[in-house]
Design brief:
There is one protein chain. The protein has helices at residues 12-38, 41-52, 58-84, 97-102. By secondary structure, the protein is mainly alpha-helical. It has a domain at 57-104. The chain has 4 helices and no strands.
Length: 104
């Protein structure tokens, strides 16, 4: 007769919690990948430094501000999808952000 180790059993609640945690991690990774495809961390820091130093003209500052708002909107879409157990609705990349990021 074999012994059953009941401590190894996974109940439905535990399985559901693990699936939810994995889903949240996947959505967060997708969000980070979408943002990173436009502007990685180094580029973001370079842009911020240029803005602080006054090296961006007015149009570039407008694009940078739109980019910062876009990142916040991306993060909010991520949080909403996780909280509501839905699919994320990713906002569009602001016009000019990709070009500005590539120049830094």
């Amino acid at each position: 007769m074999s012994k059953i180790d009941f401590s190894q059993l996974v109940d439905a609640e535990t399985r559901k919690a693990k699936q939810a945690a994995q889903r949240a991690a996947d959505i967060k990774a997708a969000c980070a990948a979408r943002i990173g495809a436009v502007m990685d961390v180094a580029t973001s820091l370079n842009l911020q430094g240029a803005a602080i130093a006054g090296e961006l003209d007015g149009a570039q500052m407008d694009v940078m501000r739109a980019g910062l708002a876009w990142v916040r909107d991306m993060q909010q879409a991520c949080r909403s999808a996780i909280a509501e157990n839905g699919e994320p609705v990713w906002p569009e990349v602001p016009e000019g952000l990709t070009a500005l990021a590539q120049s830094f």
